[in-house]
Amino acid sequence: MEQLQISPADSMGSPGKEQRAAGVGILLQIMMLVLSFVLGHVLRRHRIYYLPEASASLLIGLIVGGLANISNTENSIRSWFNFHEEFFFLFLLPPIIFQSGFSMQPKPFFSNFGAIVTFAIFGTFVASVVTGVLVYLGGVTYLMYKLPFVECLMFGALISATDPVTVLSIFQELGTDVNLYALVFGESVLNDAMAISLYRTMSLVRSNMSSGQNFLMIVVRFLETFVGSMSAGVGVGFTSALLFKYAGLDIDNLHNLECCLFVLFPYFSYMLAEGFGLSGIVSILFTGIVMKHYTFSNLSDNSQKFTAAFFHLISSLAETFVFIYMGFDIAMEKHSWSHMGFVFFSILFIGIARAANVFSCAYLVNLVRPSHRKIPMKHQKALWYSGLRGAMAFALALQSVHDLPEGHGQTIFTATTAIVVLTVLLIGGSTGTMLEALQVVGDGHDAPLGESFEANSGYRAPSYEGESSSGSRFKMKLKEFHKSTASFTALDRNYLTPFFTTQNGDDEDEHDELLGDSRRGVLRGHD
Amino acid sequence: MEQLQISPADSMGSPGKEQRAAGVGILLQIMMLVLSFVLGHVLRRHRIYYLPEASASLLIGLIVGGLANISNTENSIRSWFNFHEEFFFLFLLPPIIFQSGFSMQPKPFFSNFGAIVTFAIFGTFVASVVTGVLVYLGGVTYLMYKLPFVECLMFGALISATDPVTVLSIFQELGTDVNLYALVFGESVLNDAMAISLYRTMSLVRSNMSSGQNFLMIVVRFLETFVGSMSAGVGVGFTSALLFKYAGLDIDNLHNLECCLFVLFPYFSYMLAEGFGLSGIVSILFTGIVMKHYTFSNLSDNSQKFTAAFFHLISSLAETFVFIYMGFDIAMEKHSWSHMGFVFFSILFIGIARAANVFSCAYLVNLVRPSHRKIPMKHQKALWYSGLRGAMAFALALQSVHDLPEGHGQTIFTATTAIVVLTVLLIGGSTGTMLEALQVVGDGHDAPLGESFEANSGYRAPSYEGESSSGSRFKMKLKEFHKSTASFTALDRNYLTPFFTTQNGDDEDEHDELLGDSRRGVLRGHD
User: Fold this and answer.
1) Which residues cross the membrane (chains A, B) (predicted)?
2) Which residues of chain B from 69 to 98 reach within 8 Å of chain A, CB to CB?
3) How many CB atoms lie within 10 A of CB A391?
4) Which residues pair with B5 in a beta bridge?
5) How much of chain A is helix, strand and coil, in % rounded to 5?
6) Which of A199, A122, A192, A6 is nearest to A360 (CA)?
């Protein structure tokens, strides 16, 4: 029976005591949250980049979890700390992913859209398969614990989900090159969606193994999920844009109503996709992008400020909580440390797989890009390095404990846990040093984000003329794809923005005039 | 085992299907929320006061619940709608109660503090006992279902919790007299805390019946809970004020950190009290009052705007959700309608008990008030009428189903359900008409809230000289109490405000100067 089973009717016990335990459990969680925020603030203030906020939260969770493990905490309190995947997927993840989409700077993102999609979709697929095959081969050659092939692929899928939180906060702090930032950001967000779709597809394949579906069916099924979820998300986003355009809620005293409705839409999108058996994460991500791009400008000025701060607040709470929660759970769970070999080789293999992902995709992208826009080697190295694993991998691994037979799920879980802790602490801690070593820091400092982007934007027009001489059929295909993202910008400017936002209305007050002006300014920049 | 048991490990089933059911369940809830907000907006826009937002939400819940009951909804989806008291007490109630304290206008509230406390503490006690005794007598005389005496008192306590939501939204809309507004508001908020303390005390008495505690012990125990919770709440509030005064977070780029910490404090207070076995509601209410009065002014300008809007948003979502949830659950639960007599007589008795509460307390309050400040009869009638029952009574009744033996709990639950639905729909719908009939509408329209209050404030100084001739010993006692609330204002002005807020600093920017100015203006008004 699936339900939010708080205080089940049959556990009569003493309700007072139960409520007390809940109180103590939640109290501890709040205290850790406050501690993380304060510690994170202090660290940032003293510019200590080798212990970023996410690592600090993870460490706090680990330490408190360790203490709770040693001491004789009551089981009733302890149970408030178990990592429940459903809680994670239904309540913690949606705000984080939505905020990723919502806070995405549309210009660098869309101008790198082709590259991001290549890295996130094709690259993650490559990384999953490479990891899966290597782990399988490792098992066959008795190097490590032997898993069946489908389970190796499941492990490959879940471990390919990179985490945006830690790396990006450092990138932002140091003022990295906008294009590199957009690549890392876009890839790590979209590949969560890809990894979860892949994992679910593989899980389905595993349970339907006997019915003998062929490879084509799997691909169709995967595309169905991905495209379906994306359409649902975009659809909900556009619906919200139209609602706010025509409902006339942007007058003063309806501020609260406006915000309530705005806040409900992302969750609606997430649950709509989940209800149809699609991927809520993919859906809410695209809802975030669409709502920021269209719906947001239909809000009143006050509501714009409020909703932006609201989603930022909720997602930072959720993010910090996820890392604490993860640290705590890692310290509390039983792990099968007997397979240290598995852990060691997995780390090696995911490094190889990430290299296969990044360098092959960068090669493909560079094939179609004009020379001044090619992804330089140092950016590729930074991309390779920034692939630390976080909450998504952890949550999927925890789910695999339920999905797979005893030993397999447990091994995958232990390996994932170790990988998450190591990559968050080591990679997260050394990103600053790495960025400085690769000399990709400071570009953003010299020129503000907007300008430095403006400087190398507008590259598309020459790209089709200047480079089409070396055209193999494959390169043509890639360019077609690239062109389609360019024509999307035109579509957006000429049809979508006027249709979904209040830009075309002269019947609005001064505030809308201002908005219109700024938007026209943006358009002029494109011309 | 008490825990947030989502997707228990032993219910292996198909995780995809479970997640889908959760998705559909939550999707339905979001759709009802959106519908409620939109419907509420339309109703308010057309000034249809006989169907306020809370009634509309309740009706939506009832209708959808009824439909779900008729149709063959899957159990897994249905289970997402059960009203879980713990979910209500841990996640829905805290924001509502905090917002009550946080949005309280301190001036009318503190100038009516004596009256409010009399109504909420003494009055609720009277109402509980009267209801309990009448229900017991009704049982003894075979008028209605017979309950043991302690259970009658438990019923009396839970049914004495009046609901602020519906009535107050109408009061605000119509612009009622500020003093009446403060009375109704303060009473309905504080009596929730009182009712829950009484209910818990009675529940404790019931389970410890055999150990033969005397009446004194019960009183001590009750005071312990009430005073302890209040101190915890006030303590957390003051701590937060000091933190924000000295942490120096009110600079621009720490906006998000500031808000995160501010948002965590109320919940911290709630859980602290619950963890100590005290009443979280009482605690969070006082934290709300203290944080608004002291901490709030230590925030940066942006954060002030944001947090005010944030708590408003969260509490309106929670409020609307509670009414929908309640309506849905009422339509879904099995009720023992065999005891219609019990329902009928309880409604009669709570009317009598409320009269005993309001008129006796008003008499006491009027004894000490100067003639121009006495509570007029029409205000007393409005107070009597505005006592509709809402979510708190419902949640406590649901808890009583677990606390009491089968038949008793079920009877109390059915009666409470019927009373909630009837009072919300009938009283909520007719409050507008009643207020107009009693001619208490429009005072607020003639003069803005602030002014009309300013006009009859500052009444305390004369009150002690002008009226002390008729002094019986009892009246002196009451006046002493009244005086203590007046001296609290002096304490606040001279010590608390300078100590807990940034008012005394000249090192702050223009914004703080402004705040200081306005506060000095307020103080001058008091002199």
Assistant:
1) 21-43, 49-68, 80-98, 110-137, 219-244, 264-286, 306-328, 340-362, 382-401, 407-428
2) 75-76, 79-80, 82, 84-87, 89-90
3) 26
4) A5
5) 80, 0, 20
6) A122
- Which chain B residues are Cβ-neighbours of A399 within 8 angstroms? 15
- Please tell me the distance from the alpha carbon of residue A348 to that of residue A265, in angstroms, as a whole number: 42
Question: Comparing B446 with B161, which gets the higher pLDDT?
Answer: B161
Q: What is the pLDDT of residues B107-123, one digit of tens each?
A: 777 788 888 888 888 89
Which domain range does residue B209 map to? 85-438
CATH number reported for the structural domain that contains residue A426 in this entry: 1.20.1530.20
Whether residue B53 contacts residue B36, with contact meaning beta carbons closer than 8 Å, is answered with yes
pLDDT at residue A231 in the model: 92
| Residue linked to tokens 């062929």 | A214
Q: How many CA atoms, within 13 angstroms, populate the side-chain half-sphere of residue B204? A: 20
CB B203 within 8 A of CB B155: no
A439 and A381 in contact (C-beta within 8 Å)? no
Compute φ and ψ for B162, nearest 5 degrees.
-85, 155
Rounded to a whole number, what is the distance in Å from the CA of B483 to chain A's nearest CA?
A: 37
For residues A321-328, give the mean pLDDT.
Answer: 86
How buried is residue A255: exposed, middle or buried, by Cβ count under 10 Å (0-12/13-18/19+)? Answer: buried
Residue type at position A407: G
Distance CA B57, CA B390 (A): 12
Q: Which two tokens stand for residue A398?
A: 């925890």
Cβ–Cβ under 8 Å, residues A45 and A314: no
Look-up: residue for tokens 């005389």? B141
- Strand ranges (DSSP E) for B98-155? none
Number of domains in chain B: 1
Chain B interface mutation, best of A2, A250, A301, highest count of B Cβ atoms under 10 Å: A2
- Does residue B22 fall inside a structural domain? no
Instruction: Encode pLDDT of B383-420 as tens digits.
Output: 888 888 888 888 888 888 888 877 788 888 888 888 88
Q: How many CB pairs under 8 A join A and B?
A: 220
Judged by CB atoms closer than 8 Å, whether chains meet at A20 and B274 is answered as yes
| Interatomic CA distance for residues B366 and A274, integer angstroms | 60
Q: Name the closest residue on chain A to residue B20, using Cα atoms.
A: A275
Q: What is the DSSP string of B475-494?
A: HHHHHHHHHHHHHHHHHIII
| Stretch 308-327 of chain A: residues touching chain B, C-beta under 8 Å | 309-310, 312-313, 316-317
Could you give the CA distance from residue A133 to residue A148 in angstroms, rounded to a whole number?
Answer: 11
Evaluate whether residue B341 is within a structural domain. Answer: yes
A263 shares contact with chain B (CB less than 8 Å): yes
- Whether residue A22 and residue B317 make contact (CB cut-off 8 A), yes or no, is no
Q: Determine, yes or no, domain membership for B245.
A: yes
B68 domain-assigned: no
CA A5 → CA B1, B102, B278, distances in Å?
10, 31, 24
Residue in A2, A8, A23 nearest the CB of B7: A2
* Residue in the structure block whose two tokens are 């089940």: A8
> Under an 8 A CB cutoff, do A75 and B1 touch?
yes
pTM for the model stands at 0.79
